[in-house]
Design a protein that fits this description.
This is GOLD domain-containing protein. The termini are far apart. About 35% of the residues lie in helices and about 35% in strands. The protein has a domain of about 100 residues: Sandwich (Jelly Rolls). The longest helix has about 70 residues. The chain is α+β, with helices and mostly antiparallel strands.
């Protein structure tokens, strides 16, 4: 299995494409992506075959995990579009896997070692599938952790600025009260006495 795992920033109003080659028809293409940070964690994507036919697309999605069958030999395009955002840059983690590993055929003669290795190979394939499932689950939790951290960081900044503004308001009110009290006990302030 050939795989490419990348994390890339995508600027506001940018379209970024990545490509994967398929050597023969019928191969499986795995595509996983998740927005790690930026804005409301949403991005649009599309997948095109070598004839520029759109196989799959999505608008304003946070993450996805897809498996496609490549019916055409050639270069497949995986494009991300950050057109919803006019200011915010997005950080996208994605993985493109092309399965081109041939499977071994079992021997026609009964009782040979190949029969036993065939069972062993099937067991290894099942374990491999389970490991991929665990890997996807880990990626999901990693993405959730990054999003949670981003939300906490944003909230901390808002609380800091709220605290600063609140402190400035209290100091401003104290200065105003001192000024008003001073004007009561000065000559110009006698006009305002009750």
């Amino acid at each position: 299995v050939n795989a490419v795992a990348l994390t890339t920033p995508i600027a506001a109003n940018e379209r970024l494409c990545f490509f994967a080659d398929v050597d023969k028809a019928g191969e499986k293409i795995g595509f996983y992506y998740a927005v790690q940070s930026g804005g409301s964690f949403e991005i649009s994507f599309d997948i095109k075959d070598p004839n520029d036919k759109i196989l799959l697309d999505g608008q304003s999605e946070r993450q996805g995990d897809y498996v496609l069958t490549a019916n055409t030999v050639g270069e497949y395009a995986f494009c991300f579009t950050n057109e919803e955002s006019t200011v915010t840059q997005k950080l996208v983690d994605f993985d493109i896997m092309v399965e081109n590993e041939p499977r071994r055929e079992a021997s026609a003669r009964p009782g040979q070692i190949a029969d036993h290795t065939s069972e062993l190979e099937e067991s290894i394939v099942r374990l491999n599938g389970m490991l991929h499932s665990i890997k996807r689950t880990q990626r999901y939790f990693h993405t959730r952790e990054n999003r949670g951290f981003s939300i906490v960081k944003s909230t901390q900044i808002k609380i800091l600025w709220f605290g600063v503004l609140e402190s400035l308001a209290i100091v401003g009110m104290a200065i105003g009260q001192v000024y008003i009290l001073q004007t009561f006990f000065t000559r110009t302030g006698r006009l305002y006495k009750v």
